[in-house]
Design goal:
alpha+beta; 3-stranded antiparallel sheet; two-stranded antiparallel sheet; 9 strands; flat
Length: 180
C-alpha cells in the first residue's frame, strides 16, 4: 500500500508501508522520518489497523463512505433515504449446565451421579454486531421490516463489503432498525 508524506519543503513523497520506521531523503536534501504503518494509515484518513471485514466496515462508516451508492437496494431507483440495519455476526452461546440430566440419570444408574460434580461449561463466542446502513427508499421501509432473513441478506449483498461480511459469517442474522 502506498502513502504520501510531505517534506518541510512542500514536496510530496511516495512511501510504501514497508518503509515505515525508516528515514527518507527528499530531493531537496532534507531527511524525512517515516512513521509507523498505523500512523501512515491515520494520516491517509483511515483507521490505524483494519484486521478483517468488520474492521473495514467500521472504518468505512467512520470515514462516511457507507451507505454506498445512491440507488435503492430494493428498487434500484435513485434515493437519499437510508435504512438502519445491523448484522449480528457472532453471538454468545450458553455453555450449559447438565446437572439436571445427572439427577435424572441417578434414577437410572448411580454411576451417572458423577455428572453432579462437573462444573457448568462457560459461555462461548462473542457478541459482534455490525451496523450496516443501506440505501432504501422510504416507501420500501415497511417492506424491509416485514422481510425475512433471505431477502434482507440479498439486499445487503448489493453492497460488496456487506456481501463479503455475509460470506465470512454465513450464519449471521440481519436486524432492521437496529444499529450498534
Amino acid at each position: 500500500m502506498s502513502f504520501s508524506l510531505e517534506c518541510s519543503c512542500g514536496r510530496s513523497l511516495a512511501v510504501q508501508a514497508a518503509q515505515a520506521g525508516t528515514t527518507l531523503r527528499c530531493p531537496c536534501g532534507a531527511e524525512v522520518d517515516v512513521p509507523s504503518v498505523g500512523r501512515l494509515r491515520e494520516l491517509a484518513g483511515r483507521l490505524a489497523y483494519e484486521a478483517g471485514t468488520i474492521d473495514v466496515i467500521r472504518g468505512m462508516l467512520w470515514r462516511g463512505e457507507l451507505p454506498a451508492g445512491d440507488r435503492c437496494a430494493i428498487s434500484g431507483e435513485s434515493t437519499d433515504d437510508v435504512a438502519d440495519l445491523s448484522v449480528e455476526a457472532e453471538r454468545i452461546y450458553p455453555g450449559g449446565d447438565h446437572r439436571a440430566y445427572a439427577w435424572l440419570g441417578l434414577l437410572v444408574s448411580p454411576i451417572l451421579l458423577l455428572g453432579l460434580f462437573q462444573e457448568p461449561r462457560p459461555d462461548v463466542g462473542r457478541e459482534t454486531i455490525v451496523p450496516t446502513p443501506l440505501r432504501v427508499a422510504s416507501c420500501y421501509h415497511p417492506k424491509l421490516r416485514r422481510s425475512g432473513q433471505r431477502a434482507l441478506k440479498r439486499w445487503l449483498r448489493t453492497v460488496p463489503i456487506y456481501a463479503r461480511l455475509l460470506e465470512e459469517f454465513p450464519r449471521a442474522r440481519v436486524k432492521v432498525g437496529e444499529t450498534a
